[in-house]
Design a protein that fits this description.
Elements lengths: L15 H15 L6 E2 L11 H14 L15 H12 L11 E4 L2 H7 L10 E5 L3 H9 L15 E5 L17 E5 L11 H14 L2 E5 L25 E6 L12 E4 L5 E3 L5 E3 H12 L5 H8 L4 H27 L4 E3 L5 E5 L6 H12 L1 E2 L1 E2 L10 E5 L4 H14 L3
Helix pairs in contact: 2-8, 3-8, 4-5, 9-11
Bound molecules: pyridoxal-5'-phosphate.
């Protein structure tokens, strides 16, 4: 008899976004005249920068000419893009990352899940709570956890709660963990990590021989010059960290798909027989076996992000969302909410008023202001009592949503 992967059955059935969609459509059916504004799912709304579109048009024309047509590209990505990333994202910030340590992919969501292929089954894994659900669910699918309890916590994972009590900065674990997922600026809390804090993690990882999986998908939203954009800005991180970045949020590539993962050549760990194994080598092997590269057209579009025009246009895009975040922060603060994040980040994280549960507040906000956000409990047990508002929307929608919340929903 064929066996299925039973690990999938451990995943929580009522997943966050389908449940949100169910409640919104039930509300809209009962209230057909209500204009619902969605500040929930973390997807971008503004169109692709002109520089990226132009580069993609030109690449399409190259594909239409026998002399410049391209078939399969390198699985690791084209040199022109890897070099631009090494120069602009890393060398320019003083990070010692070479182009051949950058692997181009079709998304950080995929990479943060796929990276588990190169690690053994018995690592102790730490995540913050609340957390981007992909880190947890991919470990569940890979059989790295036991079952979930009623709060949604999976046996075998180490959860590091982040709440207002610790300023949304996870304390380092007391015990030894082997793999640590960190995401800064954080989805969902909007918190950022200082260089001192990341240095503590690097010291921890070196002491325990652990690996940090650093998700920097929102680094472009950092405006504070003292906040690091990359884990490699910390000395020693080359020996204990893998970094994930994406063009999804800085350049609006959520539907276009392009991202990158950095695996330094100096990153190695011992196999059971004691020999040193290069993680760069393993990831290279994994990608060249299971992946056939990102479309040339898309990689040309991504490379245009690093041109003068592209930097100007993506800068404007990010500034637009940050201004939305500022408007949300200010309106909600004025309305009396306890507000976190939303600076150096497109996410505003609020404490639900009157001790309401995250889902009760969701229903209240939808019912009274016709505004959709994301219940904090959907990101983990410690997110209960919190709520995420996303700045990814048009200015008009953000302004109207804030107007409705500040006048329509009692605090
Ligand atoms: C949006 C997001 C990403 C980017 O994922 P892609 O697959 O590259 O679109 C990565 N990590 C987090 C935490 C995100 O919110």
């Amino acid at each position: 008899m064929t066996q299925v992967n039973e690990n999938f059955l451990k995943l929580k059935a009522g997943y966050l976004f389908p449940e949100i969609a169910r409640r919104v459509s039930a509300f809209s059916e009962a209230n057909p005249a209500a204009k619902v504004i969605k500040l929930g799912i973390g997807d971008v709304t503004e169109p692709l920068p002109a520089a990226c579109r132009k580069a993609m048009h030109d690449a399409i024309d190259e594909m239409g000419d026998r002399a410049t047509f391209k078939g399969y590209g390198p699985e690791q990505g084209y040199a022109f893009l890897r070099e631009a990333i090494a120069a602009h994202d890393y060398a320019a910030r003083g990070c010692d990352i070479a182009a051949d340590e950058v692997f181009i992919s079709d998304g950080s969501k995929c990479d943060t899940g796929n990276i588990l292929d190169i690690f053994g089954p018995d690592n102790t894994i730490a995540v913050t709570d609340p957390v981007y659900p992909v880190y947890v669910d991919t470990n569940v699918m890979a059989g790295h956890t036991g079952a979930a309890n009623d709060a949604g916590e999976f046996a075998g994972l180490v959860y590091l709660p982040v709440t207002a009590d610790n300023d949304f900065v996870a304390p380092l674990p007391e015990q030894k963990v082997d793999l640590i997922y960190l995401c800064y600026p954080n989805n969902p809390t909007g918190a950022v990590a200082t260089a001192e804090y990341l240095a503590q993690w690097v010291a921890y990882a070196k002491q325990h021989d652990s690996i940090i999986l650093y998700d920097a998908a929102y680094e472009a939203f950092i405006t504070d010059p003292d906040i690091p954009h990359s884990i490699y800005e910390v000395d020693g991180a080359r020996d204990c960290a893998i970094e994930f970045r994406s063009f999804s949020k800085n350049a609006g590539f959520t539907g276009t798909r392009c991202a990158l993962t950095v695996v330094p050549r100096s990153l190695s760990r011992k196999a059971a027989n004691g020999t040193g194994v290069s993680l760069h080598g393993l990831w290279n092997r994994r990608q060249s076996t299971k992946f056939n590269g990102v479309s040339y057209i898309i990689q040309r579009g991504a490379a245009a992000v690093y041109t003068d025009e592209g930097r100007q246009q993506t800068g404007e895009l990010v500034a637009f969302y940050l201004e939305n975040a500022r408007l949300i922060r200010e309106a909600l603060t004025e309305a009396g909410y306890a507000v976190y994040g939303g600076v150096n980040s497109p996410y505003v994280w609020i404490k639900t008023p009157d001790g309401l549960s995250s889902w009760d507040f969701f229903d209240k906000l939808l019912g009274e202001a016709h505004v959709v956000g994301t219940p904090g409990s959907g990101f983990g047990a410690a997110g209960e009592g919190y709520f995420r508002i996303s700045a990814f929307n048009s200015r008009a929608n953000v302004e109207e949503a804030m107007q409705r919340i500040t006048t329509g929903v009692g605090v």
